[in-house]
Amino acid sequence: MSDDIDNKVINLFNRSSDNENSIRQRFFKGFQYVKILKDENGNYFKEEALRDYAKKCYFIITVMKNNGIGVALYKYKVPYSSLLDFFNVFRNNGLYGEIIDIERYIPEDLA
Predict the structure, then answer these.
(1) How many whole angstroms from its chain centre is CA 91?
(2) What is the pLDDT of residue 4?
(3) Residues whose CB falls within 8 Å of the CB of residue 78, separated by 6 or more in sequence, listed in order
(4) What pTM value is reported for the model?
(5) What's the CA gap between 1 and 51, in Å, rounded?
(6) In whole angstroms, what is the distance from residue 55 CA to residue 79 CA?
(7) Where are the alpha helices (DSSP H) in the chain?
(8) Distance CA 4, CA 71 (A)
(9) How far apart are CA 110 and CA 101, in angstroms?
(10) N or C end of the chain, less CB within 10 A?
(11) Of 26, 27, 28, 23, nearest to 10 (Cα)?
C-alpha cells in the first residue's frame, strides 16, 4: 500500500518536462517555483473559483519558542486573508520564535 501511495505523489520540482504546456519550472530572485497553467483534467484555472476556495482556507503555522525551561510549540490558525499580516508581524519582531511548519487547513464542509 505504501508503494501505491508513493507512486501517486508528484514532486513537481524533480519532474521532467513531459508536459511542457502545463508545467514549467523557473526561478525568481533565487527561489524555485513551478508555473501550472492547467488543472489535472487539462482545463484552464478559473480565477474566481480559486479566489473563493482560498478565502475558505486557513493555515496552521507552527512556531517554536524557547520559554526558559525548554521549547514549546505554538500553533496559530491564520485565515488566508490574514496570512501576509501574520508574516509581517513575525518579520517585524512582533512575534518571536522560529517557524517550524506551515500546513493548509481546509474546513471539512468544502467539497
Answers:
(1) 18
(2) 54
(3) 58, 59, 60, 61, 86
(4) 0.67
(5) 35
(6) 8
(7) 2-8, 47-56, 83-91
(8) 37
(9) 23
(10) C
(11) 23
pLDDT for residue 107 is more than 90 = no
Residue 61 has a CB neighbour count (10 Å cut-off) of: 20
- The SS3 call for residue 21 is coil
Cell of 101: 511548519
Inter-CA distances, 9 with 12, 66, 80, 101, Å: 9, 35, 25, 20
Q: What pLDDT digit, counting tens, does each position of 3-52 carry? A: 555 555 455 566 554 454 555 667 777 788 888 888 888 999 999 999 99
Q: What is the pLDDT of residue 10?
A: 53
Tens digit of each residue's pLDDT (9 = 90 or more) over 48-105:
999 998 999 999 999 999 988 999 999 999 999 999 999 999 888 878 889 999 999 8
